[in-house]
Design brief:
The complex is a heterodimer.
Chain A: H1 2-48, E1 57-64, E2 67-76, E3 79-90, E4 95-102, E5 108-115, H2 129-132, E6 145-146, E7 154-155, H3 161-194
Chain B: H1 7-17, H2 28-33, H3 38-61, H4 71-93, H5 95-105, H6 112-120, H7 127-157, E1 159-160, E2 163-164, H8 177-199
Antiparallel strand pairs in B: 1-2
Classes of the chains: A alpha+beta, B mainly alpha.
């Protein structure tokens, strides 16, 4: 019994002390981290629609792979300038997290990759501007991944086909969602004006 | 270790004589996994250097308090505590660095080299030697990872620290996991050869733990 106590007591003391150290660190770093993450998110959204003058607020959530993702309406003087959706696509070894923004005429303004865990040197070539810039100005029907040169569609990065497909699928889902949500409203608005 | 061994010798022992990767052949798993580029190797090395030093210091301070029968759980828990503290502090105050390093920090808990230094050295030595041993071993690990990183990134991608140097990729396989084993073996053999040829050493390496 005495032996057991000799072994248990120091161990328990260490565990409790470590627990106190860890929870103390959490208590003091959590607010700072929360603020930093919030600010980063706002800055990323702002980059997607630099011409938005009003604060960009979430307009709703949608789901990919059973996880919730948000979409946003960016406005300047209450007129919509961009629709933004956070989205994800399954790459080779990770879900590639992205932000996609559409102009009010439902063409892609910008695609930004937030997070990925693809093969270094191969899959992560999708981060290169030459690949991501292909999406700019494209509409829903044009977002098709092809191998080989193309102007109309999206050309896969050679050696990173799975990762390219992940990005393309994620973007396509996001554009589909935003067109469903806001595209119809846009058409009626144009029709009303032309009348 | 007795007091007449200078701290400099102790430090050098960690970097060269008992280099964690090339001599003790410990923690080869991360050494292969993250050295596809110099930058990754450097970041991982720095993280290990931190955790190793802190763990060594704590274990040395508590060496008379920890019951030998339950020393392993105690060491692992001390390591885990430091890893958590570093992870939390870094994610709050150093966002840019955390984005690059965050992935690696949590892995350090399971590194054989940290547990082995706690067991072999810090649990038997006073505070200052343990601190120096931690810094030396950490620096040795950092150096080894950077060497592997330079070798693999230059051959695999034709670049160093993500800056392109060669217009081609001479040996793409080097940045794949397979290439990691090639690089590790070649580097270990090469260093042993240098040791034998110029310093009269017997060579080392072998064993191996993940």
């Amino acid at each position: 019994m005495k032996d057991t106590m000799k072994i248990t007591l120091p161990l328990v003391t260490i565990f409790v002390a470590a627990g106190i150290v860890m929870s103390g660190t959490y208590k003091y770093t959590y607010p700072v981290r929360y603020q930093a993450e919030k600010k980063e998110k706002e800055e990323a959204l702002k980059e997607m629609a630099p011409d938005a003058t009003d604060p960009i607020k979430p307009a709703g959530t949608w789901t990919i792979n059973n996880k919730p993702y948000e979409f946003y309406r960016a406005t300047a003087s209450e007129q919509p300038v961009a629709y933004i959706a956070s989205t994800a696509g399954k790459g080779y070894s990770s879900f590639i997290q992205m932000l996609v923004s559409l102009s009010p005429d439902m063409k892609i303004r910008d695609v930004k990759v937030l997070d990925l865990n693809e093969t270094p040197g191969l899959g992560d070539q999708i981060l290169e501007k030459s690949f991501l810039d292909q999406f700019k100005g494209k509409s829903l029907s044009q977002i098709v991944l092809v191998k080989g040169e193309t102007k109309e569609n999206i050309q896969a990065v050679s050696g990173a086909t799975y990762s390219s497909r992940g990005v393309t699928n994620g973007v396509k889902d996001a554009v589909q969602l935003l067109v469903d949500k806001y595209g119809a409203g846009l058409k009626t608005a144009i029709q009303e004006v032309t009348k | 270790m007795s007091n007449n061994v200078s701290y400099w010798t102790l430090f050098k022992n960690g970097v060269f004589g008992e280099n964690p990767v090339f001599r003790l052949a410990l923690s080869l798993c991360p050494a292969v996994a993250v050295t596809s580029g110099v930058k990754n190797g450097f970041l991982m090395g720095v993280a290990v250097l931190f955790v190793m030093t802190m763990t060594n210091v704590t274990v040395s301070l508590l060496r008379n308090f920890i019951n030998p029968k339950v020393r392993i759980p105690s060491y692992v828990f001390i390591t885990a505590t430091w890893v958590t503290v570093i992870d939390q502090v870094m994610s709050a105050y150093q966002r840019a660095v955390y984005k690059e390093m965050g992935l690696y920090i949590m892995l350090i808990v399971a590194f054989a080299i940290i547990l082995s230094r706690a067991e072999m050295f810090a649990s038997k030595n006073k505070l200052l030697p343990s601190f120096v041993d931690g810094v030396g071993m950490g620096a040795g690990f950092l150096l080894a990872l950077m060497l592997l990183g330079v070798f693999r990134e230059f051959l695999g991608k034709g670049s160093l620290w993500n800056i392109h140097i060669l217009p081609v990729k001479p040996l793409l396989i080097m940045i794949m996991p397979t290439g990691g084993f090639f690089a590790m073996g070649l580097m270990m053999g090469w260093l042993n050869w240098i040791d034998r040829k110029f310093f009269g050493g017997a060579g080392g390496g072998g064993g191996g733990h993940h």
